[in-house]
Amino acid sequence: ADPHKGGEFGYVVLSQRDAAKDVASKHIASFAPGDIVSATVLKFIKASPNDKDMSVLVNIGNGVTGLIYRTEVSGYPRRKANDILKVGEEIEVEVTRVQPELQRISLSMKALGKKRTLSALEPGFVVEADIVNTTNYGYFVHIGGGVEGLLHVSDLANDQGKRESFQIGDRTQVVILSLGENGARISLGRRQIVAAAKK
Questions:
Q1: Which of 19, 72, 166, 186 is the most exposed place for a label (fewest CB within 10 A)?
Q2: Is 103 helix (H, G, I), strand (E, B) or coil?
């Protein structure tokens, strides 16, 4: 702005782009990690040259575009973003990182799915589970929404002295024995289900 140039009213340079950036930065700053927001799928991109799977750009309003990185799209079984989402689709996501100064906001579908699954679980609940990994001390199983727990060998069912066994990809029922804070440690059982069924 220069009041001495441009005739009677002076000289003013305006920028719509800078105004839009300012609105976007303020909108981003209004969010915090853990917030749940509605978003519209804009397009699928490779977030880095070495990525094989696509990440997702979404619009969360006021000209703000957020990124759902490819590993934050879904839990187990992992599915590609462009297989489960469509351009223009409305989804809910959780805010994971906010950087107003860089006009960046990171979002996650997986984190939201995990949070909702955990909020619906309690010790004693029997749920369907998929075997995702085997160890010498038991099995890691997926119980929905990206949530995994441990089925320890001591909590497997026995049939005439023979402990049951599973392969990766098998599906079975498990009972929730204990839940750690934020799902950090989830203990699961099978023998408790079998024992209850025999009563």
A1: 19
A2: coil
